[in-house]
Amino acid sequence: MTQLEAAKKGIITEQMKKVANDENKDEKYILSKIKEGKIVIPANINHKNLSPKGIGEGLTTKVNVNLGSSKDKEDFEFELKKLEIALKYGTDAVMDLSTGENLDELRKLIIEKSPVPVGTVPIYEAAILAVRKYGFIGKMSKQLLFETIEAHCEDGVDFITVHCGVTLNSIERIKKEGRITNVVSRGGSFLVEWMIYNNKENPLYEYFDELLKIAKKYDVTLSLGDGLRPGCLKDATDRGQIYELITLGELTQIAWDNGVQVMIEGPGHIPIDEIEMNIKLEKSLCHGAPFYVLGPVVTDIAPGYDHITAAIGGAIAAWHGADFLCYVTPAEHLRLPDIEDVKEGLIATKIAAHAGDIGKKIPGAIDKDILMAIARRNLDWKKQIELSLDPEKAKKYRESLLSKDEDACSMCGEFCAIKKVRDYFSSK
User: Fold this and answer.
1) For the chain, percent helix, then strand, then coil, each to nearest 5?
2) CA dist., res. 367 & res. 352, Å (int)
3) H or E stretch including 263?
């Protein structure tokens, strides 16, 4: 029985109890929102060490970290170190986006080591296998694709990105409109190549019923991917993107009818004034299904700083109702991220998620900020460092240049506004 099937029958699962406790919510609230499709709990029955997380309406905004090797750098210890850092700094989920050689082995290691939900994009592996066997993605068989999907699910993956909304009709809309960046989704591009070469419909769309059977068997959440997401600001909110979103809304209802949990993946590059509209469109067209956004990045001219451009967009998206933010690192658009990139990208995205939660009045979201304000008023540096998202960095900055006045910092020293006013008030 999937989480959705249990909710429809009024059964509160152990996973629902855990999420309710973590979120300080009534268990019946969690059950009702799962039943409506507005909350998902990605929890594969084969992921044995999982500490489940809830994603969706009324819950804290969750954050995902992407891991994964490539042919240019395939180092399992390096990827596991990324996982370790991601867990240390509080990620809510990880995705293995590997395109290297030993994909099965690395995926199983990540699942084994990860207590948070793990996601993958099975078509990456299917495409790689097709290239190895036939020399060309276009010769990938439907059987190979679905066998790969089932292998990921059997291994214990909690959610899979599947680009079911990339259809022959949607490709035509993009071609006629004339995008600058065409298709920037890797999975989406694989399917576009396959469909054009074979002159056939996307098998993930055509055989969606078979996909649902696999997902239901393992209680895997479908993350309906935005294979036609805009890759630059100029392409945002165009016909191709919206047509795909309409298709995903239709597929969402079919999945729900079959007891399968669904979340929707959202755009990557969006002008800041279009973010709210994009969130409202998804919530309307996809019936309130949880929204998982990449960034969104709000300007295209900041390579090396895209963790900041994405945090700006992510905060606004979360404020207006996005439920799940995929981190973006400083290395985005440039190279495979290193350990420090993972940390910087995660912290920036957690800041965005937290700011969004305060904006949408999630109960308790602002509590830690109030404690920080009190610690600052009291010039309690130990407490300020303890409350920070990155205590090590805060401590390093604090100690690198101390003020002669131990109460103050070296920015203001003897002219510390808080200290002066506090001393003045206490003397009156």
Assistant:
1) 55, 10, 35
2) 16
3) strand 262-266
Give CA–CA dist 19/32, Å, rounded: 13
Domains belonging to the chain, first-starting first, are: 41-359 (3.20.20.540), 367-427 (no CATH)
What phi and psi, each to the nearest 5 degrees, are found at residue 101?
-95, -55
Q: What is the pLDDT of residues 51-101, one digit of tens each?
A: 999 999 999 999 999 999 888 888 899 999 999 999 999 999 999 999 988
Peptide bond into 296 cis (omega under 30): yes
Tell me the backbone φ, ψ of residue 65, rounded to 5 degrees.
Answer: -115, 130
> Which DSSP state fits 382?
H
From first CA to last CA, the distance across the chain in angstroms is: 68
Name, of 170-179, 275-284, 409-418, the range with top average pLDDT: 275-284
Radius of gyration of the chain (CA): 23
* pLDDT attached to residue 428: 57
Angle at the Cα of 404 (from 403 to 409), degrees rounded to 5? 25
Q: Is 266 helix (H, G, I), strand (E, B) or coil?
A: strand
- Rounded to whole angstroms, how far apart are CA atoms 11 and 384? 43
> What whole-number distance in Å separates Cα of residue 167 and Cα of residue 172?
9
Task: Compute φ and ψ for 220, nearest 5 degrees.
Answer: -95, 130
pLDDT, mean of residues 365-377: 97
Nearest 5°: CA angle at 220, between 215 and 225? 85
Higher pLDDT, 197 or 75: 197
Q: Is the dihedral of CA 304, 307, 308, 314 positive or negative?
A: positive
H or E element that contains 292: strand 291-294
Cα 56 versus chain centre, distance: 12
* pLDDT tens digits for range 378-408: 999 999 999 999 999 999 999 999 988 888 8
